[in-house]
Specification:
alpha/beta; binds NADP nicotinamide-adenine-dinucleotide phosphate; Rossmann fold; 14 helices; disordered C terminus; aldehyde dehydrogenase (NAD+) activity; 43% helix; three-stranded mixed beta sheet; NAD(P)-binding protein
């Protein structure tokens, strides 16, 4: 039976992917035992207690322990790396471990890596303007990695360095690797620990604290995907590898053409702020005595948003909240039949759900964990 290893089980994305993997009724997934790398012993025990013999937990020191990662990865057919996407050495170590299997003549192994669309973003507030373009994972397949390399040479960015490193190491070693280059994720996760998204909770928090919304410019954008639709995509990838005779080799994109975009709609940052204001005014949370009486969206300085929303990282803030990063995904639906179902209605509902969660003290900020590594 195929051996599958997963990271990020305690997080928002990885936790959701794990619950969807173990609850799937697909015949290829039902008999699988998933090995899960977990740093915290208490969380490992809770995962084991919940999922029983569907998982094994393996203690590790995390994404900086490249020697152990290589040794561990060398035992698996599929690695699903859905933990922090910001640690290049650790991500590449998974490829290097899998490469040992290629050398030993085993069936070609796969790495499914999570990354993010801010890797393609410009920095329109602090750098000279560059042409804004929309990236398509099919039409632009040969250009995406090359473009990221140019950006990363000028200015290394951990999440992008990791994505480039994974895809290039895979291409060089014969390992198969896909980077799921993910936009804004929304919706409640289904994992045991962090179930919270980032963007809508953070903007909701700001809007409620200040009584007004914010923008860094008029045009900053994000594509979006519901966390359950994203998890569905990871399941379809795993199933394709398990179920097809060719194990997806030559069928799924890989290595230098291995980026796919799981996108299901596009939004502007200022419009997300508007929606947060709309729900807060609609239920009477705003205005308060000392906040604006009408809905306002103010132009604010980058430093303020970096300090309040991205753990002081102004580069992350500028790419995420000020940058342009339109990505259109066609490969997932074309090759895997991926059909996101949580669209406009789920998006609208999420703003109401997030405000409710905030008011019920069910929200905390997880960005520091998400970006994990302070490479700058
Ligand atoms: N959330 C989003 O909106 C979003 C959007 C686009 C792309 N992404 C990508 O998805 C990744 C995961 O996001 P998320 O929202 O699931 O984050 P999260 O909820 O904060 O979870 C992060 C996971 O990574 C693990 N982790 C963090 N630092 C680690 C380290 N040094 N070594 C080993 N494991 C480590 C955490 O494990 P512990 O419990 O042991 O800390 C946790 O399981 C992001 O890093 C990013 O690249 C996320």
């Amino acid at each position: 039976m195929s051996k599958i290893l997963l990271t990020g089980a305690t997080g928002y994305v990885g936790g959701t992917v794990l619950t969807q993997l173990v609850s799937s009724s697909a015949p290829s997934l039902k008999p699988l035992t998933i090995d899960v790398l977990v740093r915290d012993a208490v969380k490992a025990a809770k995962l084991k207690e919940t999922y029983g013999d569907r998982i094994n937990t393996i203690a590790w020191n995390g994404l900086d322990d490249t020697t152990s990662i290589e040794e561990t990865a060398a035992n698996y057919d599929i690695v699903v790396n859905t933990g922090s996407g910001f640690i290049p050495e650790g991500a590449v170590a998974f490829v290097n471990g899998l490469a040992r299997r290629v050398k030993a003549g085993n069936p070609v192994p796969w790495l499914l890596h999570i990354s993010g669309c801010s890797n393609l973003a410009d920095r329109p507030l602090t750098q000279p303007p560059t042409p804004v373009r929309e990236w398509n994972d099919e039409k632009d397949a040969s250009e995406i990695l090359e473009h990221m390399k140019v950006l990363d040479e000028a200015e290394p960015y951990g999440q992008r360095t990791a994505e480039i490193g994974v895809l290039e190491a895979a291409a060089a070693s014969g390992v198969q690797a896909i980077s799921v280059n993910t936009p804004l994720i929304f919706g409640e996760g289904t994992g045991l620990f962090n179930q919270q998204a980032l963007v809508i909770p953070l903007i909701t928090m700001y809007v409620i604290q200040h009584g007004y919304g914010w923008k860094l410019n008029e045009t900053a954008n994000f594509d979006r995907v519901h966390v359950l639709d994203l998890a569905d995509l990871f399941l379809l990838l795993v199933r394709t590898i398990l179920e097809r005779e060719d194990r997806g080799v030559g069928y799924l994109p890989s290595g230098k053409r291995g980026v796919i975009f799981p996108t299901a709609g596009r939004v502007l940052i200022k419009d997300i702020n508007q929606k947060c204001l709309d729900v807060a005014f609609a239920d009477g949370t705003l205005p308060r005595e000392n906040t604006p009486k009408t809905k306002e969206i103010r132009l604010v300085p980058l430093e303020e948003i970096a300090n309040k929303l991205t753990a002081g990282r102004s580069d992350v803030a500028e790419r995420g909240w000020g940058g342009h990063k339109a990505t259109t995904g066609v490969l997932a639906s074309k090759l895997l039949g991926w059909k996101p179902t949580r669209l406009e209605e789920a998006w609208e509902k999420d703003f109401v759900d997030e405000l409710k969660a905030l008011k019920e003290d069910r929200r905390m900020i997880t960005l520091a964990n998400c970006i994990a590594h302070s490479e700058k």
